[in-house]
Design a protein that fits this description.
Helix 5 links the parallel strand 7 and strand 8. The protein is globular, with a radius of gyration of 18 Å. By secondary structure, it is of the alpha/beta class. Helices cover about 30% and strands about 25% of the residues.
Length: about 240
């Protein structure tokens, strides 16, 4: 069970970005994290992963998540990353194997094989020698997903992986995510396209400065909950599955 207990984040400018967030969700599923712009979705993930100062606690099967860092993959928004960094696609993906290596060990043949297998899964093996700056937005997003695959984690957090990418890349990424679920991996995805929540996710976390609702899609994706989060102007057909 993935449990969040009273998670709060206040930034240095004294802005409370997230307040007393609570959730309890079974593992091995794909969860969408939804809410309006500025609602604290990215802050929620960063708080869960101890990337920002926070109060409260997060546990996985009663183990504090901070003790599981080597078993967690996190893909940040592409806008937060430096595409001019001089690194090849393969080198970028190999970095995903580093958390599993012992102290002072460098990636070897085994790790490069894992990286190539991950690139093959996202259809990017033919680009392994390209510099990351040469890639399109969708191609680079697939490389980031491959890096997460190379880490072979049981928890994966993706921050807006479908924003600004082509349809083909989105189809590949969602297939990879579904394959991970079959392997028992738990995936959390920050997502904006409400029309696809039934198609993509097993459950949802609805956020607007706190967690307003969590659980299975049909339980969370209701007119009442969406109005509470987005306001009365939200227009979404609830209860319809693609």
């Amino acid at each position: 069970m993935f449990k969040v207990n009273d998670l709060s984040v206040t930034y240095n400018n004294k802005v409370r970005a997230l307040k007393n967030a609570n959730a309890e969700l079974p593992l091995g599923k794909i969860y969408g994290i939804i809410g309006p712009n500025g609602a604290g979705k990215s802050t929620f993930i960063k708080g869960v992963l101890n990337l920002v100062k926070h109060t409260g606690s997060v546990t996985v099967e009663d183990t504090p998540i901070k003790k599981m860092q080597c078993n967690i993959s996190y893909v940040a928004q592409r806008s937060d990353l430096d595409l001019t960094f001089p690194i090849s696609v393969l080198q970028c993906v190999v970095l995903g194997t580093v958390p599993t290596l012992g102290l002072f060990r460098r990636p070897g043949k085994k790790e490069y094989k894992v990286a190539e297998q991950a690139l093959r899964k996202v259809g990017m093996l033919d680009f392994k020698n390209n510099q990351i700056g040469e890639l399109s937005g969708g191609q680079f997003q697939r490389v980031l997903i491959a890096r997460a695959l190379a880490q072979q984690s049981t928890l994966v957090f993706l921050d807006e992986p479908f924003v600004g990418i082509d349809v083909h890349s989105e189809e590949i990424i969602i297939k990879v995510i579904r394959d991970l679920r079959k392997e028992g991996v738990t995936i959390f995805v920050i997502h904006h396209d409400l029309s696809k929540v039934h198609e993509y996710f097993d459950g949802l976390i609805l956020i607007n400065k706190t967690i307003l609702a969590f659980g299975e899609v049909d339980e969370v994706f209701t007119e009442e909950n969406l109005t509470s989060a987005y306001g009365s102007n939200i227009i979404v057909k609830v209860g319809e599955k693609s």
